[in-house]
Amino acid sequence: MDKIKYNEEQEAFEISYEIWGKAVTVLFYMEEQQDIMDNISDIADKLGRVERNKSKLAEIIKRDGKYDKKKFPLLTSAQIEDIMEIDSAFVDEDEEGTVLSITVTAKNGALGEGVMVELLGDGSIEISCEGKLM
């Protein structure tokens, strides 16, 4: 992980991290930089899970119908994997621990305004649509 900086506009700490071959700015909505350091192992684990499980996330998006089924009725999970990219990422805390949230989009619009993938503090994954799927 690169050097942690403070982003005044977002009121969050940030680092640049490579996920799926692309540099992504990960925002940390935590009170102190020390909070990040105290949870760095868990955060790194969650970022690694996203990096290693792109195909699994694509399968879940397909299974749960979190794509534009009207415009792309024959889209396979392998095709979703090929077109999906991370638009944004941030880390927050809840009562269970750290939460990594990423917004996944596709240039062709198959994922609408984006799909939110959350890796929760208890280890579970939640996926929801960001906006309309057209």
Low-confidence stretches: none
Biggest sheet strand order reads: 1-2-3-4-5-6-7
Mean pLDDT: 91
What coarse outline follows from CA principal-axis ratios? Answer: elongated
- Total number of helices: 4
Structural class, please? Answer: alpha+beta
Assembly type of the chains comes to single chain
Strand content: 35-45%
Task: Write structural notes for this entry.
- This protein has 134 residues and is of the alpha+beta class.
- The protein has one domain (5-129).
- It is built from 4 helices and 7 strands, in the order βββααααββββ.
- The chain has a 7-stranded mixed beta sheet.
- Strand 6 and strand 7 (125-129) form a beta hairpin.
- Helix 3 (54-63) crosses helix 4 (77-83).
- The mean pLDDT is 91.
Short summary:
With 134 residues, the chain is of the alpha+beta class. The protein contains 4 helices and 7 strands.
Sequence-ordered SSE layout with sheet pairings:
Elements lengths: L4 E3 L4 E8 L2 E7 L4 H6 L1 H13 L1 H10 L13 H7 E11 L2 E10 L8 E5 L5 E5 L5
Parallel strand pairs: 3-4
Antiparallel strand pairs: 1-2, 2-3, 4-5, 5-6, 6-7
Helix pairs in contact: 3-4
Features:
alpha+beta; seven-stranded mixed β-sheet; 7 strands; elongated; DUF2262 domain-containing protein
